[in-house]
Amino acid sequence: MNNLLLLPMGAVIGIVVAAVVVVILLGVVIWYISCYNRLQRLKNIVEEGWATIDVQLKKRYDLIPNLVETVKGYAKHESETLEAVIAARNAAMTATGEGKIAAENALSGTLRSLFALKEAYPELKANANFLDLQNRLNGVETEIASARRYYNGAVKELNTKIDVFPSNLVAKRMKLEKRKFFELDSAEERNAPAVRF
What we know:
Mean pLDDT: 79
Order of helices and strands: HHHHHHHH
Number of strands: 0
Shape: rod-shaped
Helix content: over 70%
């Protein structure tokens, strides 16, 4: 301390200013690292959400052929509906990126038409295998809806961080882009289908 008193006043001010600059720079570096890590975690959460949706969709893809085969036995002249379901399933399985959302929505629509067939075939309504497959598919659809909510929540949080200051500065350096929500394509799909037994 006595040595500081021996220094000229200009040197003391220079040391204090240098210390303040170092503290500010250290604060900026700590903030940048924290913001970078937060954005990286959010990006990983979004990717995990998408992977969860993929797992549920795979379950649905595996159930659909069994359901179609069960219905085929009862509805031989409804081949157009059955072919549409299989075509939509195949398209959804091969779709990627943003096209995946549209393909999944198309598949959901064709599944509604498949379930509508049971009204025309009362014996199909009573078939235990059909009912079991339908219940399992309904369970998978519920899990898909839950996975979509999780994914959309993660996308909302990531997109917000990408948009707001000052984290948007770090996001730009990371070259992060906003993600699309997993949404329905048409207003018709937003209405609950009528189910009669």
